Write the structure tokens for this entry.
Amino acid sequence: MSDNEQKEQARSGQRLSRVETKRTHDDAADGKKERSSEKKGKPPKSSGRVGRWVFRLVGIPLLILLFLYGGMVAGFVLLGKAPLSEALDLQTWTHIVKLVFE
């Protein structure tokens, strides 16, 4: 609850519950802790940076290729009414690539 809302409630005669007053005191204390750590100049923790970087570099292209292949197989089997064994055959895809690009 913001200070403005508290002031409006005080003007209107409404009382704050104990939970709301505790929240406002906790929020104020959290703000002081954040400011004190900013003043010390501590660098942010980098525990997940390497994992995110590796995922972006390797995982996202692999997911894109996986979804592309899955979409092609689904289109070949569901829309083209072909058997799944033909959809997984490498010669089928080389033939499709030749048809499209040549």
About this structure: Residues 49-79 form the longest helix (31 residues).
